[in-house]
Q: What sequence folds into this?
């Protein structure tokens, strides 16, 4: 009786497929009597291909719910719908080869997934059609038509197969792909991607070396890099490239997660020259500038006449700040690669590199703020009325002004630094501009952050300096006109020492403004050009401007020290024989009775 009931049950209720294939419908591109042209992706009559060369369009294997490999259970007459081409709308159609049984597989859920193929493992390739495709050589192969997955998610090239891990080959200096240690996976589940990369679609790279050779470049490997938001570019230190691939180098103990990855990127010959200039020529220029700045500072220290006035003290502080800025640039440029790569595993930036970036920002801003103090002080000297004060009161007044100037010239850059630090350490949800010190470079890592936290304050300072110079020039012109008028009416009129000293100081400050201001405005112009044309197209302009900028210490030495009144006081200079001291004067007799002045 029980047997009869079971027999009736199996007759009336068909057994479900234990692999869950029932109910799946797979669509075919062309009709029963058509083949898919692999070049045009159009359906053509089957009569053009001999029957013995026909390949079956269904793969031999498929994946179950646990990503295990099972035999194909789809039936051609039952589960296949014919004559329907995939609709990709704006995306491009792509033909993939299903001949290799383990690269792309149909799952028991009716999806086409990438296993060991071109795309990220377990990636659902979306809407697809399968068919037998043929080439012009009349060879046929099993194929599928899909919409380009990179149109749905950003794609990044992977150096190795998705079931392999990468190792750095010290002999060749390149990435070498090999199978992971151990028995290997029992199914087609690959290790999970790190969090920053989980939203990317990885595409296996097949021609990374040939693309680099086409541009006369060389491949380099780095563990520290910054991937562009769209996945089309990468930067590592001073290297930036659109020809790169990512390699996964370390697995977790259980083999479920990738724990470390590297980038292999192409460095062009032009980029190599730029890096060599930055790491070798820039430190040399800074060292030369610092040598002359040090000579200038020592000259002011040894000369009471130079250092005693308030103007001299401000000049000394300005020179010292500029010396620190160039020293910071030398350290950052010379040890850039090592500094950027010195970072803990859990951080995406170098702490030491970031500290040096803030130091460089502060010292450079401070030097420009002290130049602003010089511009204001000389303007104030021309504008204030002359009054008689004692020497002690003048010294106290100078000390009070120097303290006020120090609070301004050090406090304002410190406020900018504090704002930069606060913005830099905002959580990842913050989408505004950041300085990005120590991420790919020790200094600013992006143009917008560089403009807001560096170039914009300098623009305000230089504009204020220009205003002070225009107003001071106007006062100087009025003084000159008054002098000319008095010389025409009075034979005993002479220019006061104070006015002459202020005039000389103004000339000095104006020369320093020209030295530092013109190069900075030129850099700002280049900064705008890089926004419009791209930095790669105007890098030679930046190199030339940077070299002039880094040699400012030599020009400042010429302006401040290379004068007979200053350099003549040097001990070694006094020992040099001066031929003008031993000239023999020829005297001619003068008629003392004729006292008329020759006009």
A:
């Amino acid at each position: 009786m029980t047997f009869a009931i079971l027999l009736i049950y199996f007759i009336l209720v068909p057994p479900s497929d234990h692999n869950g294939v029932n109910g799946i419908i797979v669509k075919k591109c062309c009709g029963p009597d058509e083949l898919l042209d692999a070049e045009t992706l159009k359906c053509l009559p089957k009569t053009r291909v001999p029957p013995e060369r026909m390949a079956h369009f269904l793969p031999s294997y498929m994946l179950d719910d646990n990503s295990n490999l099972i035999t194909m259970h789809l039936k051609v007459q039952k589960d296949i719908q014919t004559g329907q081409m995939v609709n990709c709308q704006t995306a491009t159609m792509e033909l993939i080869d299903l001949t290799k049984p383990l690269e792309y597989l149909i799952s028991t859920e009716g999806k086409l997934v990438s296993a060991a193929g071109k795309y990220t493992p377990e990636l659902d390739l979306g809407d697809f059609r399968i068919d037998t495709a043929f080439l012009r050589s009349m060879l046929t192969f099993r194929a599928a038509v899909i919409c380009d997955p990179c149109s749905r998610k950003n794609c990044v090239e992977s150096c190795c197969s998705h079931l392999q891990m990468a190792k750095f080959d010290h002999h060749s200096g390149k990435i070498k792909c090999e199978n992971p240690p151990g028995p290997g996976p029992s199914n087609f589940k690959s290790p999970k991607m790190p969090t920053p990369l989980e939203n990317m679609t990885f595409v296996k790279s097949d021609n990374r070396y040939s693309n680099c050779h086409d541009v006369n470049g060389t491949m380099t490997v780095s563990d520290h890099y910054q991937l562009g938001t769209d996945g089309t570019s990468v930067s590592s230190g001073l290297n930036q490239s659109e020809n790169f691939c990512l390699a996964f180098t370390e697995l977790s103990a259980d083999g479920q997660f990738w724990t470390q990855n590297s980038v292999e990127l192409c460095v062009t010959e032009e980029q190599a020259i730029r890096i060599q200039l930055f790491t070798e020529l820039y430190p040399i220029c800074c060292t030369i500038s610092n040598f002359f700045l040090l000579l200038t500072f020592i000259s002011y220290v040894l000369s009471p006449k130079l250092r005693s006035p308030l103007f001299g003290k401000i000049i000394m502080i300005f020179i010292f700040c500029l010396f620190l800025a160039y020293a910071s640039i030398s350290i950052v440029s010379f040890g850039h690669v090592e500094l950027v790569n010195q970072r803990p595993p859990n951080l995406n930036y170098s702490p030491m590199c970031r500290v040096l970036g803030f130091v460089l920002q502060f010292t450079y801003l401070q030097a420009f703020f002290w130049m602003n103090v010089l511009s204001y002080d000389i303007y104030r000297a021309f504008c204030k009325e002359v009054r008689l004060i004692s020497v002690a009161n003048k010294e106290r007044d100078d000390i009070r002004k120097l303290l006020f100037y120090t609070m301004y010239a050090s406090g304002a850059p410190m406020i900018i630094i504090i704002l930069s630090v606060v913005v830099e350490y905002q959580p990842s949800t913050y989408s505004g501009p950041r300085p990005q010190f120590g991420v790919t470079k020790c200094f600013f890592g992006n143009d917008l952050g560089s403009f807001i936290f560096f170039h914009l304050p300098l623009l305000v300072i230089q504009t204020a300096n220009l205003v002070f110079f225009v107003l001071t020039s106007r006062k100087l012109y009025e003084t000159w006109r008054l002098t000319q008028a008095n010389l025409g009416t009075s034979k005993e009129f002479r220019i006061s020492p104070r006015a002459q000293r202020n005039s000389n100081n103004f000339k000095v400050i104006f020369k320093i403004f020209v030295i530092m201001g013109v190069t900075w405005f030129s850099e700002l112009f280049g900064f705008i050009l890089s926004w419009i044309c791209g930095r790669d197209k105007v890098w030679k302009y930046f190199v030339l401007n940077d070299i002039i900028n880094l040699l400012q210490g030599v020009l400042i030495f010429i302006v401040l020290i290379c004068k007979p009144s200053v350099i003549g006081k040097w001990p070694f200079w006094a020992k040099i024989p001066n031929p003008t001291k031993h000239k023999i004067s020829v005297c001619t007799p003068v008629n003392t009775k004729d006292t008329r002045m020759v006009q």
Remarks:
- The longest helix spans residues 447-489.
- The longest strand covers residues 258-267.
- Residues 156-267 form one domain.
- The chain has 15 helices and 21 strands.
